[in-house]
Amino acid sequence: MASGQSSSTTRLTMAQALVKYLSVQFSERDGKERRLIPAIFGIFGHGNVAGLGQALYEYGQELPYYQPRNEQSMVHTACGYAKANNRLATLACTSSIGPGSTNMITGAALATINRLPVLLLPSDYYATRRQGPVLQQLEHPISADVSVNDCFRPVSRFFDRISRPEQLLTALPEAMRVLTDPAETGAVTIALPQDVQMEAYNYPAHFFEKQVWSIERRLPEPKPIDEAVALLQLAQRPVIIAGGGVHYAEAWGELQEFSQNFGIPVVETFAGKGAVRKQSDLLLGGHGITGTPAAAQIVGAADLVISVGTRLTDFTTGSQSAFDNPRVRFISINVCSRDAHKQGGLPIAADAREALRALSMAAAKAGIKPRAPYLQEVSKAKHQWQKLVLEEVYRPTAGEAMSQGELIGVLNEESQPGDTIVAAAGSPPGDLHKLWDVNCGAACHLEFGFSCMGYEIPAGLGVRMSQPRGEVYILIGDGTYLMNPTELVTAMQENLKITVILSENHGFQVIRQLQMHRVGHSFGNEFRARDAKHQILEGDYLKIDFAKNAESMGARTWKVNTPEELRKALRDARPETRSCVIVAETEKYHYAPGSGVWWDVAAAEVSGDPTTENRRAEYEEGRNTRQRFHY
Ligand SMILES: Cc1ncc(C[n+]2csc(CCOP(=O)(O)OP(=O)(O)O)c2C)c(N)n1
Q1: Ligand 1, atom 4: nearest CA belongs to which residue?
Q2: What is the distance in A from the centroid of ligand 1 to the CA of 228?
Q3: Are 398 and 591 in contact (CB under 8 A)?
Q4: Cα(509) to centroid of ligand 1, in Å?
């Protein structure tokens, strides 16, 4: 027993101890404390109703319970909440055994891939095994201790199974440590065998005393800072790629100062969208496959790429084709050493805010100055792109329905400081990455690490739980809406207002666009009936009344066809207290202008179809002429 700890104990079930423990965990950063896990979502079944369900009923005063419609969704809500809180707080999720648990696996993968903390509490088989195989148990033929929950292992940053109640004493502190470690965080899964949840143990009383987990700001070592300054001195064309780490470290001001003081343009990843918050001539917007041509041009010619808080996925590196300058060097600032070492660059394993501060001081001391001709070039690229947006993207095209670009233009104009826009899959996140202008003051919440269809509405609830005022806009395609609209019910139940803008273009059109590039034929991506003659899905477009569907769950709805109607609906929706769904008809095959960045999606190597053969030839040409490896 540690000194100062009393020997008194409290007799509780494992589930009761878990609830009491979570109720007194706090996080702290920069002197500010907050509850680490202020609420729990869950769907009960035989695996948790008499265990964790009973514990929440008796001891859950400080851990309010929320009821979602689907276990996958509740993990998305927790991720949305964690992202909106810059990873300083998250939610817990409890599910029953079997399908309830496995429904959470997609959410776990999303959390871990996006480096977002979530605490998952799937129920598990009977630890005693006295009762023989129970309902929903896997019964693995050669590994008797394996359950479906073992599927969480590869998608969790920490996994444990509590087969004795006292194991909580070591499992929970480790779970909290991982959740609050910026380099390790992700899904933390504690599987709870159904019988052990109800078993009692004499827990030490101090286990239930308030505990504060400090979220570290890892300081950079002086050596890589000096080396980075030496690279900056040599660089003629530096560029910064800003990732989600800028948000999580709340390094917005430091990033803008560093960029401004030394004349270094900034481009953004999806997670980094909005990293530069104030008007800046040096901000070139989203970069990569769905980025702006201005960003692609400047990154392509850069001789020094400074990544800040990004994992550098293929959408950013253009599958390693985006950095054309043969002398390009890389610096990577990242709290996660693995990410800092990517691209064979100079790693600065540190918190983004601390590293940018140190780098700024060292660069100023070394006399680094902006280079005027480079700044002119950057400014020219930016203004050409802005002109194209105003003259082409935000203008109607005769004979066509409203484009998604026009829709985003209106939404951007109607957004206000304090609003948040959420998107995750299909063309909406890509178009927002390219077009959304953060100068309206609204936050842009893009999940593109997993790009999971169905994240948007539940994540919007998580955003709303942390943002009581302002609109929470959710931009989704019709395909994504159909995959997971039901958290609208939770929105009504909890009075968590969200405003969904549904872009109705009659199918998985973003995938059809890719299909036309890499196959050359449309197949299986549009929402069309089976054609009687050819027996394929090329018949009439399906008639789906999305507004009625949303109305049935209690939302106020609009159907709009023009930018003016959309603007009016957005204005009507703002003062509305209920959740709103605006269904906007958009043009099927009208896309925003490309960035010119290549993406490695191969076409079939052999085919009897000349169109597909041509696509393969184009693909090989791209791969052979554009892709390079950096190590
Ligand atoms: C859960 C999930 N399944 C499949 C995909 C692959 N996928 C990416 S975008 C997309 C189509 C999205 O359709 P929609 O929401 O209508 O958007 P649009 O195509 O109109 O942009 C699909 C199927 C995915 N990202 N997530």
Answers
A1: 453
A2: 40
A3: no
A4: 8
